[in-house]
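Kindly inspect what follows.
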Amino acid sequence: MTTKIISFLGTAVKPTRYFYKDQIYEGGLFQIALRQFVRFDQMLVFVTEDARKRAYPALAELNDPRIKPIDIRTGRTPEGLWNIFNTVVKSVYEGDTVIFDITHGLRSIPFLTFLAAAYLRSAKNVQIEAVLYGALELGQGGPAPVIDLSEFVSLLDWLTATNEFIKTGNAGALAEQLIKSNDPALLPLAGTVEEIAIGLLLLRPGETSTAATKLPENLNQAEKNFPPPFTLLSDLVMDSYSRFGKAGRQTEQDQLSYQLEMVNWYYDRGQIVHALSMAREWIVSYLCSHFELDAGDKNDRGAMEFLVGGGKIRSNGKVIKESPYLDQWETVPEYIRFRRLWGGPHELANLRNDVLHSGFRKNPKSSTDVIAAANSAIAELNAIAQQLNFIKESQ
């Protein structure tokens, strides 16, 4: 594994004393000082034509075979900036360890550096060891401090985790970042967030609810220890996840309301497969409640699936199986719409099976048709639920 310094060179050579970890290092260029206190295999110095002529000779005098100049454009245009970015990225290989030096060069360099670091970490599995800045402007009357900005590289991970949470609702990556903070006070919160995320991912409303009941207390206890990037996210996590904690400790009616809310939570975040699965199960749970059956019992759920699917099996014109609840079917509010949603025009049951079987059926729906049918089915489910007073006004 190679450790590379990615450095940018300006045009001025000015003898300067730098202060780093209780030691002072001297050099006309920061790279000269950097070479004295950092272990590395290669120092790739990115130089414009002007920098190569005016400043690079001071590095060449060191006669260090590890130091190599890399030509770049001036970066005065978007095309020039892309040239710098691409040149940096192509100079780093899979698995390299990189130290960025952003002391010299154009003011756009720090911005490009963090973008390049984000790309390299994701695309090439590169380890960012440090981002160093020799603060010349802070060295008046004394040595210039070397500022280690490595901590801010973690913002890239927080950014990725935040983006995933906002788009999909999955806070698993946020939990991972909390754990990486190495603060014992954050571990209970990280564990709870991870439990909720896994429960939602694997369609476990019961487990999700149990974990979510702990979330408000966990957030409150850990608040003083929040890493800065998480401070602004804590309210979002609370708003998104705490609602599920109510489902496991309310009346049967309220449990159905919150499970319906979970259907819409999935749907609003584009998780169509999850939304269809929960929507189908919601209908079965509602019917179990109506007929005072156990919604957690496989046989009772099977009986309700058979009922909403028609309640009869015929062979050679004769009824060979009939639901014992069939004569009570019309007592179910919106019973006609439930049957049409399940197996009529909306075909929710068949649609759910289609997506869960990954299209390995005869005449599977196209992806476009699945989305259109899902939109229609979820809309109809909500319309029925509205008539049954399951959707609260605030929703």
In short: The chain has a mean pLDDT of 90.
